[in-house]
Design a protein that fits this description.
about 170 residues, alpha/beta, six-stranded mixed beta sheet, 6 helices, about 35% helix, globular
Length: about 170
């Protein structure tokens, strides 16, 4: 069983890089309220907001391959939402990680941690764009941009790779 989580709400600041943002107080509360399967194997991006989302449930293996899409030149006060939506929908942006590279590193990490989970549910905390790009490649999301926009902080998804399914498990927390 593969469960993907989009991290809970971070405490964001303009002059702190997004990959360093910790969870906000509301994010910590939302993370504690999550319901996960018993005895999970917990893996997360090495970004604080991701591993802190899983921390209430036990030791978390941190893996940079579950990190968010690497990007340069993203404006703090500009059209970042539109740029992100266009990216997950298939538009290339100069200085942004190629979608094929995101898929390849995410694939590697899922394969490795699936083995390490030894039959336990694999729960992975990651980030909206990286998850969307990977799920589009592996399950054929019909509308990646709309899927990405629908993700909450946090969001929990059951992924069936063989069946190519993505089923929301908990979408009422923000």
């Amino acid at each position: 069983m593969l469960i993907l989580l989009r991290h809970a709400m971070p405490a964001y600041e303009e002059f702190v890089p997004p990959n360093e943002w910790p969870l906000s107080e509301a994010g910590h509360a939302a993370a504690r309220a999550l319901e996960l399967p018993p005895n999970p194997y917990l893996a997360a991006s090495d970004e604080p907001k991701a591993w802190q989302t899983l921390e209430p449930f036990g030791p978390v293996v941190r893996d940079a391959r579950f990190g968010e899409v690497r990007r340069e030149n993203e404006p703090w006060d500009g059209p970042y939402h539109e740029l992100r939506r266009a990216y997950v929908d298939g538009s290339d942006h100069v200085g942004w990680e190629a979608r094929a590279a995101v898929v390849a590193r995410f694939d590697e990490a899922v394969a490795e941690h699936s083995v390490l989970a030894s039959g336990r549910p694999l729960v992975v905390a990651s980030h909206g764009m990286a998850m969307t790009v990977w799920l589009t490649a592996r399950t054929g999301l019909p509308s990646p941009g709309a899927f990405w926009e629908s993700l909450r902080f946090p969001d929990v998804l059951a992924v069936g790779l063989a069946a190519r399914t993505v089923v929301p498990l908990r979408r009422d927390l923000e």
